[in-house]
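Lecture notes, unit on protein representations.

Consider one protein chain, 89 amino acids long.
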Amino acid sequence: MAICRRGGSTAAFQCMNMPFEMLNSILIGSQYWNVAFGRDPGEVTQDTEGMQTMRTLGKNMAWVLKNLHRDGTVPRSPQEEWQPMHFIR
């Protein structure tokens, strides 16, 4: 999640998620980008939409964790070998 004073939250959120996407990680989403706004300590709690987004994120995280550990192990689909594309010909 990203907590920002004004702009830049989407860029920060994107930069935080990109490494996990490249590592084939499970990304857990919410109802919107996991971003809330506030400047001073505690001020973010006044962002009602941001707080709802964080609560939904927490519920989604709990759901994923419960499902991953339901049977002890959950097999993953095999990964394909990476096939990089060189666009300069």
